């Protein structure tokens, strides 16, 4: 018994000696090697310097903190990035749990029949909890419709986000009773595209929507009026890059089309005219002026507008150009 106690005492003594030596090394690391002064961290410059003599002991240190600054608790919570980013393009803003459809475990092995049944029940209940009321089901269907139409029209993510916010506002202010989900979602996307400066014509929007043109136009006017959306009239020049790209025209032709539209604005002939028709006519006229032969039928297919409209606007643009030169 006495020998066990002696061994235990020796072991404790060795541990205490080791702890003392480690503590001495830590103290030595925290003191200046030149003057023995206290070392401090300069987070702005990423350096460890001596408080007394100013010796730089370490430099180019890694900053493990965030790159943003917060001045109160609420701002800190807003800027903190933990987990996936939230998005308005999902009805729950991407905060809920999603169970994958693959019936495999973490190692890639197939699940047994009993486990597959269990996972299917979990998916069913998870879907029920994600859309617990009619409002969430409505929002889920509408946002899926907006994403489908935006993909078909080639609209960027910022337009989809704006359309989602517009639809959420319409839902919160009870603008949907008496109107279809597809109609309000189409009107929201049409308004968002015009706000972002990447407009699509009403015919293009109707082509990918599940409602007719009259309902889209009527719902659009209602949503804009009730939500007080500030939407400027569509600028014909905003359609020119897309039409020129689809027709594979040169930069010179695109620049010439812009000049024709600027002249038309100065002469005031654009008032009351369809911006899509003016843009299509300007692209057609510019292709002829730059010797890049494009038919009216090709421009009509790209702009989704009749050849008669292109011919009428085409003559008006050239007449305005001649008057300016005269």
Automatic annotation (TrEMBL):
<dbReference type="InterPro" id="IPR013763">
    <property type="entry name" value="Cyclin-like_dom"/>
</dbReference>
<feature type="compositionally biased region" description="Polar residues">
    <location>
        <begin position="85"/>
        <end position="97"/>
    </location>
</feature>
<dbReference type="GO" id="GO:0008270">
    <property type="term" value="F:zinc ion binding"/>
</dbReference>
<dbReference type="Pfam" id="PF00382">
    <property type="entry name" value="TFIIB"/>
</dbReference>
<feature type="compositionally biased region" description="Acidic residues">
    <location>
        <begin position="18"/>
        <end position="29"/>
    </location>
</feature>
<keyword id="KW-0677">Repeat</keyword>
<dbReference type="GO" id="GO:0017025">
    <property type="term" value="F:TBP-class protein binding"/>
</dbReference>
<dbReference type="InterPro" id="IPR036915">
    <property type="entry name" value="Cyclin-like_sf"/>
</dbReference>
<feature type="domain" description="TFIIB-type">
    <location>
        <begin position="28"/>
        <end position="58"/>
    </location>
</feature>
<dbReference type="InterPro" id="IPR000812">
    <property type="entry name" value="TFIIB"/>
</dbReference>
<dbReference type="InterPro" id="IPR013137">
    <property type="entry name" value="Znf_TFIIB"/>
</dbReference>
<keyword id="KW-0805">Transcription regulation</keyword>
<dbReference type="GO" id="GO:0070897">
    <property type="term" value="P:transcription preinitiation complex assembly"/>
</dbReference>
<protein>
    <recommendedName>
        <fullName>Transcription initiation factor IIB</fullName>
    </recommendedName>
</protein>
<comment type="function">
    <text>Stabilizes TBP binding to an archaeal box-A promoter. Also responsible for recruiting RNA polymerase II to the pre-initiation complex (DNA-TBP-TFIIB).</text>
</comment>
<feature type="compositionally biased region" description="Basic and acidic residues">
    <location>
        <begin position="8"/>
        <end position="17"/>
    </location>
</feature>
<keyword id="KW-0479">Metal-binding</keyword>
<dbReference type="Pfam" id="PF08271">
    <property type="entry name" value="Zn_Ribbon_TF"/>
</dbReference>
<dbReference type="InterPro" id="IPR023484">
    <property type="entry name" value="TFIIB_arc"/>
</dbReference>
<keyword id="KW-0862">Zinc</keyword>
<feature type="binding site">
    <location>
        <position position="50"/>
    </location>
    <ligand>
        <name>Zn(2+)</name>
    </ligand>
</feature>
<keyword id="KW-0863">Zinc-finger</keyword>
<comment type="similarity">
    <text>Belongs to the TFIIB family.</text>
</comment>
<feature type="repeat" description="1">
    <location>
        <begin position="144"/>
        <end position="227"/>
    </location>
</feature>
<dbReference type="GO" id="GO:0003700">
    <property type="term" value="F:DNA-binding transcription factor activity"/>
</dbReference>
<feature type="region of interest" description="Disordered">
    <location>
        <begin position="73"/>
        <end position="97"/>
    </location>
</feature>
<dbReference type="GO" id="GO:0097550">
    <property type="term" value="C:transcription preinitiation complex"/>
</dbReference>
<feature type="binding site">
    <location>
        <position position="53"/>
    </location>
    <ligand>
        <name>Zn(2+)</name>
    </ligand>
</feature>
<feature type="region of interest" description="Disordered">
    <location>
        <begin position="1"/>
        <end position="38"/>
    </location>
</feature>
<dbReference type="InterPro" id="IPR023486">
    <property type="entry name" value="TFIIB_CS"/>
</dbReference>
<feature type="repeat" description="2">
    <location>
        <begin position="238"/>
        <end position="319"/>
    </location>
</feature>
<feature type="binding site">
    <location>
        <position position="35"/>
    </location>
    <ligand>
        <name>Zn(2+)</name>
    </ligand>
</feature>
<dbReference type="InterPro" id="IPR013150">
    <property type="entry name" value="TFIIB_cyclin"/>
</dbReference>
<feature type="binding site">
    <location>
        <position position="32"/>
    </location>
    <ligand>
        <name>Zn(2+)</name>
    </ligand>
</feature>
<keyword id="KW-0804">Transcription</keyword>
